[in-house]
Amino acid sequence: MFGIGELTILLLVIVAVLAVKRLPDLVRSAGKAARILKSEKQALKEESGGPSQPSPRVIRGETTERDTPA
Fold it and tell me: Which keywords has UniProt assigned to this entry (predicted)?
């Protein structure tokens, strides 16, 4: 009978042989998904009005002199 090691190697070979047939479709699907993700990200960026950087806060107050020891 086969041991665990031999069965694992046999299973890996079978998966590799079956995966070779579907590899181009898998890569094509991954490329489509990446393009869709990129276009959606660009659309969100344009919708929000560019990069989301907060505008600087201006706090109005009065200017005072430093206390200096005499």
Answer: Membrane, Protein transport, Translocation, Transmembrane, Transmembrane helix, Transport
Q: Where are the alpha helices (DSSP H) in 1-70?
A: 4-47
Least confident among 5-9, 43-47, 49-53: 49-53
Signed CA dihedral, 26, 28, 29, 30: sign only: positive
**Is the separation of the CB atoms in 2 and 10 below 8 Å?**
yes
Closest CA to 33 of 21, 41, 43: 41
Entry pTM: 0.44
* Start-to-end Cα distance in the chain: 98
Coil/strand/helix, residue 58: coil
Question: Band of the pLDDT at 67, cuts 50, 70, 90?
Answer: confident
